[in-house]
């Protein structure tokens, strides 16, 4: 029986859907171990009910039993070719003696100057200074639902900038915080985990359901990148 000790870095919402077998439910969460390895765990139906309220982002757990399967790369952006599917026999125990040997998150930053050479729909991590941000607007999707949208410009040490589009709740939470900082005349550093590259009107990036945004990040977590960004010569944030 295998057991892993890992920190939950992301927990998805419980999602309901219907297929040929009837009404179903699913949620997943991402795990990070002390060696920097990441893997996604997924729970379906009764197992989702069993563990959804147990799992909390940021906490460390001992997890054992379950199936190890090839990762579904259409849905799983982590740098691991395998993923876990938990079952009713799986065991999840909180690890209470959390001694910070496992960091809160891991990043694989790509310089903005490299983005133009990447394939459309690539999932990347980017860190930079927010040099401008627009107010939130509402747009109507093709399916008739309304969604919130906000765009900002992100510049990094490569000297290049890229437009980042925030969708949905990212506009209200992180987007509003960034706007407040910018309107105070400061340049917030923004770290992004798992944003998607698109080529609509040129190369840009956008949030997806599994994206994570870190505003004014802890430089001890992000090595020298954040401190160098704060020392960049910039005009007033707008």
Automatic annotation (TrEMBL):
Q: Which GO terms describe its molecular function?
A: damaged DNA binding; single-stranded telomeric DNA binding; zinc ion binding
Q: Name one GO biological process term.
A: nucleotide-excision repair
* UniProt-listed CDD domains: RPA1_DBD_A, RPA1_DBD_B
Where are its TM segments located? none
Question: Record's InterPro entries?
Answer: NA-bd_OB-fold, NA-bd_OB_tRNA, REPA_OB_2
Pfam families for the chain: REPA_OB_2, tRNA_anti-codon
Q: What are its GO cellular component terms?
A: DNA replication factor A complex
Cellular location(s): Nucleus
Residue span(s) of domain Replication protein A OB: 112-215
Q: Which UniProt keywords apply?
A: DNA damage, DNA recombination, DNA repair, DNA replication, DNA-binding, Metal-binding, Nucleus, Zinc, Zinc-finger
Concerning PANTHER family, the annotation shows: REPLICATION FACTOR A 1, RFA1 (PTHR23273), REPLICATION PROTEIN A OB DOMAIN-CONTAINING PROTEIN (PTHR23273:SF4)
| This protein's name | Replication protein A 70 kDa DNA-binding subunit
